[in-house]
Structure formats: C-alpha cells, structure tokens
Amino acid sequence: MTSAPDIVIRGGTIADGSGGDLYEADVAIADGKIIDVGKVSGKGKEEIDARGKLVAPGFVDVHTHYDGQVTWSQDITPSSQNGVTTAIMGNCGVGFAPCRPSDHTRLIQLMEGVEDIPEPVLSAGIPWEWESFPDYMDWLSKRSFDVDIGAQLPHAALRVYVMGERGARRDPSTVEDNRQMAALAGDAVRAGALGFSTSRTLNHRTSTGDFTPTLKAGEDELTAIAGAMHGVGRSVLQFVLDLSTVHEDLPMMLRVAENTKCPISFSITQNDKSPRRWRQTLDTINEASRRGLSITAQIAARPVGLMLGLELSRNPFQTHASYKAIAPLPLKERVARLHQAETRATILAENASDTDDPLFFRPNYDKMYLLGNPPDYEQPPENTLGAQARRLGKRPEELAYDAMLTDGGRGMLYVPFLNYSDGNLDATREMLLDPNSVPGLSDGGAHCGIICDASFPTYLLTHWTRDRTRGEKLSIPFVIAVQSRKTALSVGLADRGLIAPGYKADVNVIDYDHLHLHPPKVHYDLPVGGRRLLQQVDGYEATIVSGVVTQRGGTATGARPGRLIRGTQATHSAA
Q: How far apart are CA 300 and CA 286, in angstroms?
C-alpha cells in the first residue's frame, strides 16, 4: 500500500457474504472500496477494533417503500439502523412517478391505503418536483442518504399516467396503451430503474377502498412492459399475488418471464387458508428455474404480524359502536374514558361489526399474543390470549382490553397473520433455505401504524442463528450471505455484498452477543408529526457505506455517503 487506508477494521470474525466458514482477519478500506482482507500491516487513518465482533457485508433490503421518505429525509430509518446499506424501493406497484399534477392525490391515496403511510405525511412531505420517472430519478440523484437507494418503476403510477381514469378503474389496456407504457418503461431503465413492480392482490386498496389499478392487468400489458424494460438492460419484474388467484396468476407471470427473458421476483408466505400452498408454489418456481427461468422468491424472516393498540391504526374493538363513538378523542382522553367501568362493560358486551378493511380481521384470540420484552415472535399456542383466558376463567376480550390500557394506553397486541399457521416458524425456515429464495418483505418505510417489520435483517441474525429455541437454527454464514450477496445479485447489484478486495465498502461491525431488538414503540417524527412504529436496536458497533461510517454504536454520525443507484452495477474485473 502506497498510502494509509481510510479505515482498517482490526481482528474481526469475518462472515464475508460468500456463505463460507467464518475466519479472523483485518479489512482495509480506501476510496469507497475494500482493498485488502487478511493481515493488514499499515495503520489506517481510522482504526476500528473488531476483536470479538462479527464483521459482515452491509445488508441489501430488496423490498422497501421509501419512495416518499427519500424525498423529504436523508436518513432512511429504520432500515439504516438495522445494518442495511442498500434499500430497494418501488415495490408492489406503488410509487410516485410518473405522475401528472392532477393525479398527485390519487397516488397518495393509493400509497396510504396499500402501505399505511398517512396522507397528511405524504401531502406535506413530497415536493412533487417531477412528472416523468426519469425526472424523479434526476431529482433523487442530487440527494444524499445514509444508505444507497435503488428504484423500481411502479405499475400503478405508470398505468394511471398513460390511461388516466381508465387505468385507475382497471379497464383493459389497448394496444396503443401497451405501446406507450412499454416506451416509458424502457425510458425508466435508461434512467436507472432496477426493475418494474406490480400487484395482483385484493388486499391492496386505496384509502377510499378502491382496488389497486393493476389488479387485473392483462398478460399482454405485462409482457409489453417487461419486454421493453429487459430489452434495454437487465431489470427485475417484482410482483405480489393473491392466494385466491395464484393458480391463475402465477402461470401467467411465468409465461411473461419466459416470453421476455425478464427475471421475476415475488413474495411467498404461509397463509392460514392454505397452509401448504407455499410448498406447492416453491416447487413450481423450482421447476421453472430448472427450465432456465430466473426466479427469486422473497421470504419474510418471521411472521408478518399486525400490531394492534389504541395508539395504532387498528385494534380489536375499532368496529364496536361504543368504541367508535370515542375513537376521535385524543389518546389521553380516550384512555380515561376506557378506564371507566361503564365504558369497559359496554364495549366488552358488544360484537365486532363488518368492515371492508382488508387488514382488520375479526378478532381471533387464539391467534393473538402479547409480544413481550424482549419481543418474542415465535411463541407457543399456550401463550395466546385465548389460552390465557381459559386458564384464568376470563374472556379473552377482557385481557386484550386491559393489555392495551397498559403504559398509558400504549400497550400493544400482536397478531401473526402470515407464516404462523403451524404455531411455529418451521415453514419459514424451509422457505429461507430454498435455493431460489432471498429474505424480503421488510416493507421499510411503510405500514407505519400497524406493522413493524423493517427490523427483519436484525431478526434474521439474532433469532435464526442465536436465539431460537423452538426448532432448528440457521448458520451465521448462511444468514449473512442470503441477505447481502444473494439479495444484491437478485436485483443486479454485483458490486456489493462481499467482504473481498475490489468490492464496495459497505460493511457492518456487529457486537453479535449483544445484538438486540427492543419492542416496537410509536414515534411522531414524520412530516407534520406523523406517526410510525419503530424498534430500537442495540449491537451495531459500526455501519459503513461506501467507506464512510454512518452509524456508530447505535447513533447516526450524520454522514450521508449513500446515493441513488443508476441501473445494475457490475462487479470489479478481478472478481
């Protein structure tokens, strides 16, 4: 070395992202790249003592919804607090470009309904200084962040931009519509889009209750768009399907992939209505992979779970007439009323009424838990409120009511509604081990008042390699590899995800023994005081993005070396 490295990480236990065995080494970094791994003799301008610590590549989160947040904030929290150094947004067909001024409200209502990001936050936070997708990318390219950001072209925005009201009401597209969408999709890839996303699930609705514009988009439309994008440069077609129509939609998406040679990526979860369907779906994509198709299944690291509470978007009593009467009151006043014996008795005597809210489930107390501290996402069935109530000779509604009133009305209930049909995470482990899967579905930046899953990358490491007691674990090298190198390659980013010379210097130094997630709490730190659920995490000694320390000991340094990624990134020539 002719000059001192910018950083030398000393004596860490290296999980290099390849999936190979752990080993002890130093890591030298200069000019945003890893330049040496081994015994580094020269002293760095900064030295990080990693003895007894785990040193791993930065995590690549392929499924986030920071499309709005990146326009008002340079700190991509909470993902950047969970070891993530690259976040891919624009998933599930929702986003904010392209968009005509007349459709601003429409796209905000769609994002609010699908991803539970409040309208006042989006309306106040998004500056709308673009119309086309390339304009959006150009505007973002002038900003800096604490992680790298990758973008996908959202189908709903594209469809409404080209088809207007016809697109919003889900009319079939015409040949001319498809031609225009395909041309704009090609422009998006030229501007740096890593992929295109769409949704075909009934759960995705606007805040006014309308289904997503992409719900029944035709095969000809998807083929035209995917073909145009992949013809310009590598791009991934990301989608989410509905269990009720997966038998029709999955074969169609496989035909689109086969006809366009476009890689596809989609979410697979375990659903209570058909608890083994995930196995059939993985078998289908594994067979398609053997035929040469490029397919990646995105797997949630734990149950996709709803957080219910008085301070949150939903709670078990929200459709009870007497609760609805006091629901508009500020939390403190509402809590005071709920403590009144008469109010309690009245609400508990009522039944839940019907609602078309896709994320409100008629309470099943045999599927509802207290999350605990530390939070436990894999509890046995005897811990449910239903089981506890039977042991105590009480009604489970009483336990739920009283639990939400703890901590000044900030107590939360936890309902795992995906990946927990068996009362354990054995199916999730099998999904994560599948050769065609990667961890995904953290939904960072979304579901602000009901789901808190942006901590998936930390949970993968703590629960699956160290803390699990109700089944087999996974190895540290495997977990690091699948959420760094494997996720990076799935979206065409071959320049990162490995601790090796020549690769991008995105690195985590982790106090593995003390890596710890706290229970979710509500914070009011979005624009106009908007609410979101966050989890404090301890144990990240340092997170490095492009050779610059962005997090140190759980605190942001204020450095923002992260940039918008423009298209797929090849690895260095020696790799």
A: 18
Question: Tokens 């994008």 label which residue?
Answer: 229
Query: What ranges in 17-93 are assigned the alpha helix state H?
Result: 69-72
297's CB contacts (< 8 A; 6+ apart) are: 265, 266, 267, 268, 281, 282, 285, 431, 434, 436, 437, 438
Angle at the Cα of 352 from the Cα atoms of 349 and 354, rounded to 5 degrees: 150
Q: Given the DSSP bridges, would you call strands 236-241 and 195-200 parallel, antiparallel or unpaired?
A: parallel
pLDDT digits (tens, 9 = 90+) for 162-198: 999 999 999 999 999 999 999 999 999 999 999 999 9
The torsion region of residue 543 among left (phi > 0), alpha (psi -120 to 50) and beta comes to: beta
Cβ 195 vs Cβ 62: under 8 Å: no
Integer Cα distance of 300 and 305 in angstroms: 11
Pick the range with the lowest mean pLDDT from 116-120, 450-454, 539-543: 116-120
Kindly list the distances between the CA atom of residue 279 and the CA atoms of 56, 267, 291, in Å, as whole numbers in the listed order. Answer: 31, 13, 19
Question: Which position has the token pair 């000059």?
Answer: 3
User: How far is residue 453 from each of residues 304, 488, 495, 542, measured CA to CA in Å?
Assistant: 8, 20, 27, 22
Residue type, 493: L
Pairing of β 33-38 and β 23-30: antiparallel
What is the DSSP code string of 31-47? TTEEEEEE---SPPSEE
* Closest by Cα among 347, 389, 343 to 368: 389
Amino acid at 547: G
207-262 pLDDT, tens digit per residue, is 777 889 999 999 999 999 999 999 999 999 999 888 778 889 999 999 999 999 99
Collapsed DSSP state (helix, strand, coil) of residue 377: coil
Does the pLDDT of residue 140 top 50, yes or no? yes
The tokens 């703890």 sit on which residue? 406
Question: Buried b vs exposed e over 120-158: b needs ≥16 C-beta within 10 Å?
Answer: ebbbebbebebebbbebbebbeeeebbbbbbbbbbbbbb
* Four-point Cα dihedral 226, 228, 233, 236, nearest 10: -10
Assign 1 a pLDDT band (cuts: 50, 70, 90).
Answer: very low
Q: Judge whether 449 and 312 are in contact, CB under 8 Å.
A: yes
pTM for the full predicted model:
0.96
Q: Where are the alpha helices (DSSP H) in 155-272?
A: 155-163, 165-168, 175-190, 219-232, 246-260
Which pLDDT tens digit goes with each residue over 31-47? 999 999 999 998 999 99
Residue 575, pLDDT above cutoff 70: no
